[in-house]
Design a protein that fits this description.
The complex is a heterodimer of chains A (108) and B (271).
Chain A: H1 12-39, H2 49-61, H3 68-75
Helix pairs in contact in A: 2-3
Chain B: E1 2-4, H1 14-22, E2 25-31, H2 42-61, E3 66-71, H3 81-90, E4 100-107, H4 113-128, E5 132-136, H5 143-157, E6 165-167, H6 175-180, E7 184-188, H7 197-207, E8 212-215, H8 227-238, H9 242-257
Parallel strand pairs in B: 1-2, 2-3, 3-4, 4-5, 5-6, 6-7, 7-8
Helix pairs in contact in B: 2-3, 3-4, 4-5, 7-8, 8-9
Chain lengths: 108, 271
Protein backbone atom coordinates (compact mmCIF):
# COMPACT_ATOMS: atom_id res chain seq x y z
CA UNK A 1 0.00 0.00 0.00
CA UNK A 2 1.37 3.39 -0.94
CA UNK A 3 1.46 6.04 1.75
CA UNK A 4 1.01 9.69 0.83
CA UNK A 5 4.27 11.68 0.79
CA UNK A 6 4.83 12.94 4.32
CA UNK A 7 4.85 16.71 4.64
CA UNK A 8 7.11 18.33 7.22
CA UNK A 9 5.09 18.08 10.47
CA UNK A 10 6.89 21.03 12.14
CA UNK A 11 5.88 24.68 12.09
CA UNK A 12 8.34 27.30 10.85
CA UNK A 13 9.08 28.44 14.41
CA UNK A 14 9.62 24.84 15.52
CA UNK A 15 12.12 24.32 12.69
CA UNK A 16 14.01 27.45 13.72
CA UNK A 17 13.92 26.52 17.41
CA UNK A 18 15.21 23.04 16.69
CA UNK A 19 17.89 23.71 14.09
CA UNK A 20 19.08 27.31 14.52
CA UNK A 21 22.05 26.76 16.82
CA UNK A 22 23.38 23.89 14.71
CA UNK A 23 23.31 26.00 11.56
CA UNK A 24 24.61 29.12 13.29
CA UNK A 25 27.68 27.04 14.06
CA UNK A 26 27.94 25.87 10.44
CA UNK A 27 27.84 29.45 9.14
CA UNK A 28 30.61 30.36 11.56
CA UNK A 29 32.62 27.39 10.31
CA UNK A 30 32.30 28.68 6.73
CA UNK A 31 33.32 32.17 7.82
CA UNK A 32 36.31 30.81 9.69
CA UNK A 33 37.33 28.70 6.70
CA UNK A 34 37.27 31.69 4.33
CA UNK A 35 39.22 33.77 6.87
CA UNK A 36 41.76 30.94 7.13
CA UNK A 37 42.13 30.85 3.35
CA UNK A 38 42.73 34.62 3.37
CA UNK A 39 45.34 34.34 6.12
CA UNK A 40 47.20 31.45 4.51
CA UNK A 41 50.36 32.24 2.60
CA UNK A 42 50.96 31.45 -1.05
CA UNK A 43 48.66 31.64 -4.05
CA UNK A 44 45.33 33.41 -4.15
CA UNK A 45 41.83 32.19 -3.54
CA UNK A 46 40.97 33.02 -7.14
CA UNK A 47 43.41 30.31 -8.23
CA UNK A 48 41.35 27.57 -6.64
CA UNK A 49 38.18 26.37 -8.34
CA UNK A 50 36.90 24.92 -5.06
CA UNK A 51 36.93 28.25 -3.25
CA UNK A 52 35.39 29.99 -6.26
CA UNK A 53 32.67 27.35 -6.30
CA UNK A 54 32.06 27.74 -2.60
CA UNK A 55 31.71 31.53 -2.86
CA UNK A 56 29.28 31.11 -5.75
CA UNK A 57 27.33 28.54 -3.72
CA UNK A 58 27.03 31.01 -0.86
CA UNK A 59 25.57 33.61 -3.19
CA UNK A 60 22.85 31.11 -4.17
CA UNK A 61 21.85 30.88 -0.53
CA UNK A 62 20.89 34.54 -0.58
CA UNK A 63 19.15 34.95 -3.95
CA UNK A 64 15.69 34.42 -2.47
CA UNK A 65 14.83 31.36 -4.54
CA UNK A 66 14.06 27.86 -3.26
CA UNK A 67 15.65 24.50 -4.08
CA UNK A 68 18.92 25.81 -2.70
CA UNK A 69 20.43 22.39 -2.04
CA UNK A 70 19.72 21.10 -5.52
CA UNK A 71 20.94 24.28 -7.18
CA UNK A 72 24.20 24.23 -5.22
CA UNK A 73 24.76 20.57 -6.05
CA UNK A 74 24.13 21.43 -9.70
CA UNK A 75 26.62 24.31 -9.49
CA UNK A 76 29.25 21.95 -8.06
CA UNK A 77 28.64 19.30 -10.76
CA UNK A 78 30.52 18.52 -13.94
CA UNK A 79 28.13 19.88 -16.60
CA UNK A 80 29.43 17.73 -19.47
CA UNK A 81 27.52 14.73 -20.75
CA UNK A 82 30.05 12.49 -22.49
CA UNK A 83 32.38 9.89 -20.93
CA UNK A 84 36.00 10.96 -20.53
CA UNK A 85 38.80 9.00 -22.19
CA UNK A 86 40.52 7.85 -19.02
CA UNK A 87 39.96 8.22 -15.28
CA UNK A 88 42.66 10.62 -13.99
CA UNK A 89 42.33 9.43 -10.38
CA UNK A 90 39.98 7.46 -8.15
CA UNK A 91 38.79 10.28 -5.90
CA UNK A 92 36.70 13.43 -6.32
CA UNK A 93 37.33 17.01 -5.20
CA UNK A 94 33.80 18.19 -4.47
CA UNK A 95 33.66 20.84 -7.17
CA UNK A 96 34.00 20.88 -10.96
CA UNK A 97 37.53 21.94 -11.88
CA UNK A 98 36.29 23.78 -14.96
CA UNK A 99 34.15 26.16 -12.93
CA UNK A 100 34.76 29.75 -14.05
CA UNK A 101 32.14 31.54 -11.97
CA UNK A 102 32.90 34.37 -9.59
CA UNK A 103 31.93 35.46 -6.11
CA UNK A 104 28.72 36.97 -7.46
CA UNK A 105 27.56 33.55 -8.51
CA UNK A 106 27.98 33.89 -12.23
CA UNK A 107 28.80 30.55 -13.72
CA UNK A 108 30.52 32.12 -16.69
CA UNK B 1 13.34 -3.05 13.54
CA UNK B 2 15.19 -1.92 10.41
CA UNK B 3 17.20 -3.08 7.39
CA UNK B 4 20.51 -1.51 6.33
CA UNK B 5 20.51 -2.37 2.61
CA UNK B 6 24.03 -1.12 1.89
CA UNK B 7 26.87 -1.58 4.35
CA UNK B 8 30.43 -2.90 3.87
CA UNK B 9 30.89 -5.08 6.91
CA UNK B 10 34.23 -6.51 5.76
CA UNK B 11 35.57 -3.10 6.82
CA UNK B 12 33.81 -3.06 10.19
CA UNK B 13 34.39 -4.81 13.47
CA UNK B 14 32.21 -7.42 15.09
CA UNK B 15 31.36 -4.77 17.69
CA UNK B 16 29.52 -2.93 14.91
CA UNK B 17 27.36 -5.99 14.23
CA UNK B 18 26.48 -6.02 17.92
CA UNK B 19 25.67 -2.30 18.02
CA UNK B 20 23.54 -2.59 14.88
CA UNK B 21 21.63 -5.55 16.32
CA UNK B 22 20.98 -3.67 19.56
CA UNK B 23 19.70 -0.72 17.49
CA UNK B 24 17.20 -3.02 15.75
CA UNK B 25 18.96 -4.14 12.58
CA UNK B 26 17.62 -7.50 11.37
CA UNK B 27 19.08 -7.70 7.86
CA UNK B 28 21.77 -6.13 5.72
CA UNK B 29 23.01 -6.32 2.17
CA UNK B 30 26.71 -5.88 1.39
CA UNK B 31 27.68 -4.94 -2.17
CA UNK B 32 31.15 -5.75 -3.44
CA UNK B 33 33.26 -2.59 -3.49
CA UNK B 34 36.72 -1.10 -3.68
CA UNK B 35 38.48 -2.14 -0.50
CA UNK B 36 40.76 0.90 -0.41
CA UNK B 37 43.44 -0.72 -2.53
CA UNK B 38 43.62 -2.36 -5.95
CA UNK B 39 43.64 -6.13 -5.87
CA UNK B 40 46.49 -7.59 -7.87
CA UNK B 41 44.75 -10.59 -9.42
CA UNK B 42 41.34 -12.17 -9.99
CA UNK B 43 42.25 -14.61 -7.22
CA UNK B 44 42.08 -11.67 -4.84
CA UNK B 45 38.48 -11.18 -5.89
CA UNK B 46 37.80 -14.90 -5.55
CA UNK B 47 38.88 -14.66 -1.92
CA UNK B 48 36.81 -11.48 -1.43
CA UNK B 49 33.68 -13.11 -2.88
CA UNK B 50 34.27 -16.07 -0.56
CA UNK B 51 34.35 -13.72 2.41
CA UNK B 52 31.11 -12.08 1.26
CA UNK B 53 29.30 -15.38 0.75
CA UNK B 54 30.68 -17.42 3.64
CA UNK B 55 32.54 -15.52 6.37
CA UNK B 56 30.31 -12.44 6.73
CA UNK B 57 26.99 -14.34 6.87
CA UNK B 58 28.35 -16.33 9.80
CA UNK B 59 29.65 -13.23 11.57
CA UNK B 60 26.31 -11.45 11.11
CA UNK B 61 24.29 -14.47 12.22
CA UNK B 62 25.94 -14.37 15.63
CA UNK B 63 23.88 -11.25 16.27
CA UNK B 64 20.68 -12.30 14.55
CA UNK B 65 21.37 -10.26 11.42
CA UNK B 66 20.62 -11.83 8.03
CA UNK B 67 23.53 -11.09 5.68
CA UNK B 68 23.14 -10.79 1.90
CA UNK B 69 25.53 -9.69 -0.80
CA UNK B 70 25.92 -8.38 -4.35
CA UNK B 71 28.92 -9.27 -6.53
CA UNK B 72 30.94 -7.31 -9.09
CA UNK B 73 34.19 -5.53 -9.70
CA UNK B 74 33.72 -1.96 -8.51
CA UNK B 75 34.11 0.85 -11.09
CA UNK B 76 37.17 2.10 -9.21
CA UNK B 77 38.96 -1.02 -10.45
CA UNK B 78 37.43 -0.97 -13.93
CA UNK B 79 39.98 1.23 -15.68
CA UNK B 80 41.76 -1.94 -16.84
CA UNK B 81 39.03 -3.67 -18.88
CA UNK B 82 41.01 -6.87 -19.48
CA UNK B 83 41.54 -7.36 -15.75
CA UNK B 84 37.93 -6.40 -15.00
CA UNK B 85 36.59 -8.97 -17.47
CA UNK B 86 38.72 -11.68 -15.86
CA UNK B 87 37.01 -10.85 -12.54
CA UNK B 88 33.56 -10.80 -14.14
CA UNK B 89 34.25 -14.27 -15.51
CA UNK B 90 34.48 -15.75 -12.00
CA UNK B 91 31.26 -14.17 -10.70
CA UNK B 92 28.91 -16.86 -12.09
CA UNK B 93 30.68 -19.39 -9.85
CA UNK B 94 29.20 -17.56 -6.86
CA UNK B 95 25.73 -16.62 -8.08
CA UNK B 96 24.10 -19.74 -6.66
CA UNK B 97 25.31 -19.05 -3.13
CA UNK B 98 22.22 -18.58 -0.97
CA UNK B 99 22.97 -15.02 0.21
CA UNK B 100 23.73 -13.58 -3.25
CA UNK B 101 21.04 -11.12 -4.36
CA UNK B 102 22.49 -9.95 -7.66
CA UNK B 103 25.13 -7.83 -9.37
CA UNK B 104 26.44 -4.78 -7.54
CA UNK B 105 27.49 -2.25 -6.73
CA UNK B 106 28.21 -1.57 -10.38
CA UNK B 107 28.22 1.82 -12.03
CA UNK B 108 30.72 4.58 -12.72
CA UNK B 109 33.36 6.40 -10.70
CA UNK B 110 35.03 9.06 -12.89
CA UNK B 111 32.71 8.50 -15.87
CA UNK B 112 35.41 7.09 -18.15
CA UNK B 113 34.92 5.03 -21.31
CA UNK B 114 36.54 1.97 -19.71
CA UNK B 115 34.24 2.22 -16.68
CA UNK B 116 31.27 2.45 -19.02
CA UNK B 117 32.44 -0.62 -20.96
CA UNK B 118 32.67 -2.63 -17.75
CA UNK B 119 29.29 -1.35 -16.56
CA UNK B 120 27.79 -2.66 -19.79
CA UNK B 121 29.53 -6.00 -19.28
CA UNK B 122 28.01 -6.25 -15.82
CA UNK B 123 24.56 -5.43 -17.18
CA UNK B 124 24.95 -8.25 -19.69
CA UNK B 125 26.02 -10.58 -16.88
CA UNK B 126 22.90 -9.62 -14.93
CA UNK B 127 20.69 -10.18 -17.97
CA UNK B 128 22.31 -13.52 -18.80
CA UNK B 129 21.72 -14.81 -15.27
CA UNK B 130 18.41 -13.03 -14.52
CA UNK B 131 19.98 -11.08 -11.66
CA UNK B 132 18.86 -7.90 -9.94
CA UNK B 133 21.20 -4.90 -9.97
CA UNK B 134 22.50 -2.49 -7.33
CA UNK B 135 24.09 0.63 -8.83
CA UNK B 136 26.79 2.87 -7.37
CA UNK B 137 26.67 6.45 -8.61
CA UNK B 138 29.83 8.59 -8.67
CA UNK B 139 31.01 10.90 -5.94
CA UNK B 140 30.51 14.64 -5.59
CA UNK B 141 31.08 16.62 -8.80
CA UNK B 142 30.87 13.46 -10.92
CA UNK B 143 27.51 12.26 -9.57
CA UNK B 144 24.97 14.08 -11.75
CA UNK B 145 26.69 13.28 -15.04
CA UNK B 146 27.44 9.71 -13.98
CA UNK B 147 23.90 9.03 -12.82
CA UNK B 148 22.57 10.10 -16.21
CA UNK B 149 25.15 8.03 -18.11
CA UNK B 150 24.29 4.97 -16.01
CA UNK B 151 20.54 5.32 -16.52
CA UNK B 152 21.11 5.78 -20.26
CA UNK B 153 23.29 2.66 -20.36
CA UNK B 154 20.58 0.60 -18.65
CA UNK B 155 17.92 1.96 -20.98
CA UNK B 156 20.08 1.31 -24.02
CA UNK B 157 20.79 -2.23 -22.88
CA UNK B 158 17.08 -2.78 -23.19
CA UNK B 159 16.70 -6.00 -21.20
CA UNK B 160 17.04 -4.89 -17.57
CA UNK B 161 13.74 -3.95 -15.91
CA UNK B 162 14.20 -0.64 -13.99
CA UNK B 163 11.97 -2.01 -11.24
CA UNK B 164 14.75 -4.56 -10.54
CA UNK B 165 17.45 -1.90 -10.30
CA UNK B 166 18.30 0.23 -7.25
CA UNK B 167 20.32 3.35 -8.03
CA UNK B 168 22.17 4.31 -4.89
CA UNK B 169 23.72 7.44 -3.39
CA UNK B 170 21.08 9.79 -4.82
CA UNK B 171 20.95 13.37 -3.57
CA UNK B 172 18.72 16.36 -4.21
CA UNK B 173 20.00 16.86 -7.77
CA UNK B 174 19.55 13.24 -8.91
CA UNK B 175 16.68 11.70 -6.94
CA UNK B 176 13.84 13.01 -9.13
CA UNK B 177 15.39 11.78 -12.40
CA UNK B 178 16.02 8.33 -10.94
CA UNK B 179 12.46 7.89 -9.64
CA UNK B 180 10.88 9.35 -12.77
CA UNK B 181 12.69 6.78 -14.91
CA UNK B 182 11.15 3.94 -12.90
CA UNK B 183 14.18 2.89 -10.83
CA UNK B 184 14.36 2.43 -7.08
CA UNK B 185 16.60 4.93 -5.32
CA UNK B 186 18.82 4.79 -2.24
CA UNK B 187 20.08 7.63 -0.07
CA UNK B 188 23.40 7.07 1.65
CA UNK B 189 23.86 8.73 5.02
CA UNK B 190 27.44 9.98 5.27
CA UNK B 191 28.85 12.63 7.58
CA UNK B 192 30.45 14.75 4.82
CA UNK B 193 30.12 13.53 1.28
CA UNK B 194 26.56 12.32 0.71
CA UNK B 195 23.26 12.87 2.61
CA UNK B 196 22.95 13.65 6.29
CA UNK B 197 20.01 12.11 8.18
CA UNK B 198 18.37 15.55 8.15
CA UNK B 199 18.68 15.98 4.38
CA UNK B 200 17.39 12.46 3.82
CA UNK B 201 14.31 13.32 5.90
CA UNK B 202 13.93 16.51 3.82
CA UNK B 203 14.08 14.48 0.60
CA UNK B 204 11.32 12.15 1.82
CA UNK B 205 9.21 15.21 2.58
CA UNK B 206 9.83 16.66 -0.89
CA UNK B 207 9.81 13.54 -3.06
CA UNK B 208 7.70 11.03 -1.14
CA UNK B 209 8.58 7.61 0.17
CA UNK B 210 7.79 5.30 -2.74
CA UNK B 211 10.74 3.31 -4.16
CA UNK B 212 13.15 5.15 -1.89
CA UNK B 213 15.30 3.83 0.97
CA UNK B 214 18.14 4.85 3.29
CA UNK B 215 21.43 3.11 4.03
CA UNK B 216 24.66 3.75 5.93
CA UNK B 217 27.16 2.44 3.36
CA UNK B 218 29.40 2.03 6.39
CA UNK B 219 32.90 1.17 5.21
CA UNK B 220 36.58 1.91 5.92
CA UNK B 221 36.20 5.69 5.50
CA UNK B 222 34.29 8.29 7.51
CA UNK B 223 30.90 6.62 7.89
CA UNK B 224 28.47 5.47 10.56
CA UNK B 225 26.99 1.97 10.70
CA UNK B 226 24.21 3.38 12.91
CA UNK B 227 23.21 6.05 10.39
CA UNK B 228 19.91 4.38 9.52
CA UNK B 229 18.56 4.36 13.10
CA UNK B 230 19.79 7.96 13.43
CA UNK B 231 17.72 8.96 10.41
CA UNK B 232 14.74 7.09 11.87
CA UNK B 233 15.26 9.12 15.05
CA UNK B 234 15.41 12.36 13.05
CA UNK B 235 12.08 11.53 11.38
CA UNK B 236 10.56 10.58 14.70
CA UNK B 237 11.70 13.89 16.26
CA UNK B 238 9.99 15.75 13.44
CA UNK B 239 6.74 13.97 14.20
CA UNK B 240 6.51 11.61 11.24
CA UNK B 241 4.23 8.60 11.57
CA UNK B 242 5.76 5.32 12.66
CA UNK B 243 4.30 3.77 9.50
CA UNK B 244 6.26 6.26 7.38
CA UNK B 245 9.49 5.57 9.25
CA UNK B 246 8.97 1.84 8.91
CA UNK B 247 8.23 2.17 5.20
CA UNK B 248 11.54 3.84 4.35
CA UNK B 249 13.72 1.76 6.67
CA UNK B 250 12.08 -1.67 6.49
CA UNK B 251 9.12 -2.09 4.14
CA UNK B 252 10.71 -0.51 1.06
CA UNK B 253 14.00 -2.43 1.18
CA UNK B 254 12.11 -5.62 1.96
CA UNK B 255 9.79 -5.11 -1.02
CA UNK B 256 12.63 -4.44 -3.44
CA UNK B 257 14.96 -7.13 -2.16
CA UNK B 258 12.25 -9.78 -1.92
CA UNK B 259 12.09 -9.79 -5.71
CA UNK B 260 15.23 -11.94 -5.53
CA UNK B 261 13.45 -14.73 -3.66
CA UNK B 262 16.46 -14.98 -1.35
CA UNK B 263 15.97 -12.10 1.02
CA UNK B 264 15.21 -12.93 4.66
CA UNK B 265 14.91 -11.15 7.98
CA UNK B 266 14.43 -14.11 10.31
CA UNK B 267 17.88 -15.16 11.50
CA UNK B 268 18.16 -16.25 15.12
CA UNK B 269 21.36 -15.23 16.96
CA UNK B 270 23.86 -18.08 16.88
CA UNK B 271 26.30 -16.94 19.55
Amino acid sequence: MSIEPPSLPLSRSEVVDRYFLEHRAKVLDIAAFLDRVDRAKGGTEEDDFRVRSLRASISLLLDGDGDRTKRILDLLSDPSDQPIDKAPMKGATGAWDGFEGDAEGSTG
Amino acid sequence: MYIDPHVHMVSRTTDDYERMAIAGCVAITEPAFWAGYDRSSPKGFHDYFSVLTDTEPKRAAQYGIAHHTWLCINPKEAEDPVFAREVIDIIPDFLERENVLGIGEIGLNKNSRNELEILEAHLQLAADHDQMVLVHTPHLEDKRKGTRLIMDAIRNHGVIDPNRVLIDHVEEHTVRDVLDRGFWAGMTLYPDTKCTPQRAADIFEMHGTDRLWINSAGDWGPSDPLAVPKCRDEMRRRGHLEATIRKVSFDNPKEFLSQTGRFRTDVQPTR
